[in-house]
Amino acid sequence: MTEIPNPHEQVTQPLEQMAAVGVFEGVYGAFADVAKAKVHRKEFVNEQVVHVELNPAVEFVQERFDVAQEKITPLDNTQVHANQVHDDFISEATTEASREYGARPAAIATRLERANRVVSSFIDRATTMVRDGETDGLTVKTFFGSIDSLKHSLSRGYNDLVRKSDESVPDQATKDKYAQTVQSIYGSKPNVEEQHNGGFIHVNGERYLQSGEKTTDRYYISPKLNGEPGEAVRIWAETLDELGLGEKLYYKVATGLARHYDIVIAYTSPETAAEAEQAIQAFARKCPPDLLSETNMPSAVNVDKGISRAPEPEQLNTLLRYRGKDTVSYNELAAGLTELALSRASYDFVKQSLQPNQVTPKAVAEAGKVYFVQFIKLAGLDPAQMQAAA
Questions:
Q1: What is the mean pLDDT of residues 301-305?
Q2: pLDDT in tens, 186-222
Q3: pLDDT tens across 135-164, in order?
Q4: If DSSP codes are grouped into helix, strand and coil, which group holds residue 193?
Q5: Taking a C-beta distance cutoff of 8 angstroms, is the pair 181, 230 a contact?
Q6: How far apart are CA 120 and CA 83, in angstroms?
Q7: How far, CA to CA in Å, does 360 sit from each of 10, 34, 59, 85, 154?
Q8: Are 13 and 21 in contact (CB under 8 A)?
Q9: Would 328 disulfide with which of 196, 267, 332, 336, CB 3.0-4.6 Å?
C-alpha cells in the first residue's frame, strides 16, 4: 500500500459548479432554517429553570467549532499511513466474516478477498485525490475516522432534512382521502407488500430483491400535501402501466401523509435506469404541475417540479457492511457529510484563533462546501453529477 502525503493541508477550490454543491446548499439551508428558530434555551441557574436568550448565528457556529475541536485532530506527521487504515479495516472485516460464516473457511476467504478490493479502492481513490491536489491529508484522515458515525451522531439533522417545511400538516380529511386512494390503487395489484414496520407499501420489491440488481439511484416524487396527493400517486401508477412497467420497476409509496418529501420513491438499477428515466419523464409530462410540491427534497438533485434524484451510496455501504458497521441511507449520508464538512471548515477557522462571534454561518458554509465535494468523492460518488463513481 502507498502512503497518503499531506500537501500542507490545503484544498483546491472546484472551478465548476457541481451537483454536489447544490446538494450541500440544500442541506445547509435546511439546517440553517432550524437554527434560526433557536432563540432561547432552558438552563438551570440557582436551582431555578431560566430561559436564556441566544444569538442563533453564534450558536450555529459555536456548535461546529466545538465539534471541530473535539473530533478533528491534526496529523501526527507529514503523512497519513494508508497501510494502517487498510490493516484496521481488514481486521474488522475479518472479524465480521468469521462472525457471519462461522466454520466455513472458503466463504470467509471469498469475503475477505472482496473486502480487500473494496478497502483498496477507497484508499487508492484518496491517494489519487491527494496526489492530484483535490484534497489533503487531514481531510482524508477526518473522512476515514468519521464514516462509522455517519448514521448516528453526524446525521443528527436527518429529520430536519426530510421534513417538508413549506406546507402545514394536512387535515384529517385530506389524510383519510389519501389513504383511501392508495388502497384503491394498490389493494388488488400484484407484487405489493406492506413494509414490516409500516409507513410504506413496496411495489415489485420481491422481484427486485430476487433479481440481485444493485440500486444506483432513487427518484423522489413529492406531491403537494394539501392538494390532491393521492391523484399524483394515481397518475404515477397509470404512467407505469401505460409504459408496460407497472410490474417491473421497484418503488414504494407512503401509506399515509406526513410532512415528508418522500411520498413516492422509485429505485433504479443499471438494468432499469433507462426505463425509470423514461417513466419519470412521462410522469412529469402527464401530471398537472399544481399537484406537485413547490419545493423538492433539499438533499437531492432537482429533476422537475416535485421530482428529484439521489444516488445510492452503494460503495460506502459495502465498506461499512463488510466491517460489521451500520449502513447509511442517502439522506443520512447527505446530512452526515454536511455536518462533517462544516466541522472540517470550522477547524480551519479555529486554527486561525478566530472566535465563533467573529465568523458568520455563511462563511463556514462557503468554506464547508469545498470539503463536502471532497467528502462526496471520497465516499465513492461523483460530485459533478451526484451519481455512483465508476
A1: 96
A2: 998 889 999 887 799 999 988 787 777 889 999 999 9
A3: 999 999 999 999 999 998 888 888 888 889
A4: strand
A5: yes
A6: 10
A7: 22, 16, 10, 35, 21
A8: no
A9: 332
